[in-house]
Write the structure tokens for this entry.
Amino acid sequence: MSQTVIQQDVAETDTMFDVELRKVFKVYNGETAVRNIDLNIRQGEFFSILGPSGCGKTTTLRMIAGFEEPTGGEVLIRGQSMANVPPYKRPVNTVFQSYALFGHMSVWDNVAFGLRLKDCPKSELQQRVGESLELVKMDSLARRFPAQLSGGQQQRVALARALVNRPTVVLLDEPLGALDLKLRKEMQLELTTLHRDLGVTFVMVTHDQEEALSLSDRIAVMNIGKIEQIGTPTEIYEQPCTAFIADFIGDTNLMPAELATLQGETVEATTRSGLKIWVKPQALFKENPTREVLVSIRPEKIQLGSTDSSEIANRYDGTLKHVMYLGNHTHYQVELPSGDVITVFQTNRSSEQLKPGMPIQIYWSASDSLALPV
């Protein structure tokens, strides 16, 4: 792929942020869709807004694009307020899930459409369209029509059409949602490569946790119109701030519990069933006088089999209740004498087959147990 860096048609400013949202609200018919969002997206960042359907993420993207106006607050791009600036005058371009290509136009004409509206000189138009198609590896199919292209090829054309206008920000609205699983994986890799080569800020909305984790420099997780946490993929997954995030991002074992006393660097929590679990201390322990928490343990952090290590705080005997083989890994469910059922994910490294009904020991470290606010 070409190493061309898109030259952005936007005035230079001294701000380090390409997109800023300040105390942004959006209300529809008395219902608040977006609540008091503060957000800073850095220049050249691949930033994802992640959350379930109806959480307000697409509304947030549409306010950046200019398709919706905030009920309150302010949207800035490169330090300039976008109040009353229509979509076509904003230095952004949007790639929609449906691609929104013109069926009666060739690939070339689809990409050139925006430049023609701006009365771009013919020689410059040809150069910019050619560069954009080359970037997404569609230059050899420039004379085809959308109906003659695969879903992945149409996706590339939609990206080329967005990039040809040299935007400050490319907005991606569920860009891979219409593709099958294998093609979606391929396009994730291509999007990452394209972003790195171009140096343009990408802002993506998605409900796909794996997609956000694999593509993003940082992620904002939304729930019921609010941002619950912003962080790197590692921070979001390994250090979720809330039980919602722990449960929404990947898989976890969540158990209501009550904190006991601090001993050294660990805290004992007791579940409603009486199971005692050692968890790592957080600021939560000083700020939550009721001591009611949800303990979260990622299934892949749990080991099967016995251990003699004195450093392992949490170890329990149980019975293997369910085994689900999934090729490169296996899902296990282990029932403890307390009645708690713990889910365990293990990579398949040997041909050993564990059977339901077998007695089994599970263990994990206190540092892999998180106590989260109820």
User: Anything to note?
Assistant: The longest strand covers residues 17-28. The first helix runs from residue 57 to 65. The radius of gyration is 25 Å. Confidence is low (pLDDT under 50) at residues 1-12.
